[in-house]
């Protein structure tokens, strides 16, 4: 099968989300200028540089009560900061609950039953029980082609690692089984790993 995206795929469901998988999920926490906390998952999210350390996430669509943005992006535009929380398998139900489209006055931490704690380097909440959390200062918001598609890039200013996830000096992903986004309504969790040495190591 071959198709051009502008012509459509002719399938019952869009296969694109199922092609580029698995995708890390950034559980993005922000605070509005009015002081309301927000928490939402984004599956267009990744680490993009080591020095200085930087991450990105992309947002698509909008909310009627935020103009041309979703809550996360609107809050970042207003405050310049955000936190990327890493979600493990035990967080799956809360993460899903935080994906609900709610009025901007609603605190998703409360709605999803997630404990919030203040970040150390930025004025923003983070998920208290997250295996890891990356405190970020926004460096750029890039408008992408298409309606309401934006890319948010941030420099990491602080990193939290849960102590029980550190094993023999390494951050052990199997201890919390990170969630990944697949296509359609499918998700995955990391339950095993293997190691390969690069030829030039």
From TrEMBL:
One GO molecular-function entry: oxidoreductase activity
EC number: 1.5.1.-
Highest taxon above the source species: Bacteria
Keyword flag Oxidoreductase: yes
Chain ranges of the Flavin reductase like domain: 18-173
Keyword Amino-acid biosynthesis: no
Annotated InterPro entries: Flavin_Rdtase-like_dom, Split_barrel_FMN-bd
SUPFAM superfamilies, A to Z: FMN-binding split barrel
Keyword annotations of the record: Oxidoreductase
Name of one Pfam family that matches: Flavin_Reduct
Protein name: Flavin reductase family protein
């Amino acid at each position: 099968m071959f198709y051009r995206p502008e012509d459509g795929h002719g399938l019952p469901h869009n296969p694109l989300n199922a092609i580029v998988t698995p995708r890390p999920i950034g559980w993005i926490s922000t605070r509005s200028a009015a002081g309301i906390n927000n928490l939402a998952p984004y599956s267009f999210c990744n680490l993009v540089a080591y020095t200085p350390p930087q991450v990105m996430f992309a947002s698509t669509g909008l909310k009627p009560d935020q103009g041309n943005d979703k809550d996360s992006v609107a809050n970042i535009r207003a405050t310049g900061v955000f936190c990327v929380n890493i979600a493990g398998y035990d967080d799956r139900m809360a993460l899903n609950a935080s994906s609900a489209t709610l009025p901007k006055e609603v605190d998703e931490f409360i709605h999803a039953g997630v404990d919030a704690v203040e970040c150390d380097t930025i004025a923003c909440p983070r998920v208290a029980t997250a295996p890891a959390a990356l405190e970020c200062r926004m460096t750029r918001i890039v408008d992408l082609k298409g309606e309401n598609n934006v890319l948010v890039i941030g420099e990491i200013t602080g990193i939290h690692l849960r102590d029980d996830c550190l094993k023999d000096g390494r951050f052990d992903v199997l201890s919390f089984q990170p969630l990944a986004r697949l296509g359609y309504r499918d998700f995955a969790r990391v339950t095993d790993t293997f190691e390969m040495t690069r030829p030039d190591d």
